[in-house]
Amino acid sequence: MKEFLLLFRQADFSYRDLSAEDFQALTKKWHDWAGGIAAEGKLGNTGSRLAQEGKVLKPGGVITDGPFVEIRERLGGFLVVKSDTLEEATTLAHGCPVLEVGGSVEIREIVS
Prior knowledge:
Oligomer: single chain
Strand order of the largest sheet: 2-5-1-6
Number of helices: 2
CATH class: Alpha Beta
Mean pLDDT: 82
């Protein structure tokens, strides 16, 4: 079985803008969705939410603030899933809560 990286991209959205109740509801959706993948035995070893702050290192030693300076979307987190095919991994990405807040999921095979 192969492993695939699901990259969660967020547009103009911040969890900081949510009320405590809305944050809890969205957090539950994330746990339920990932829990469903785990129940199928298809959850990989890694997954996490990323901090909004960061740096980008470019050729020539140029460092810029923020990992999303030059793109409209920013990486919000990732999850590793186990699947036989890219199509199956894409199916596992359906239902991801980031889709409910205008985000997207990029699915990439991890080459070992």
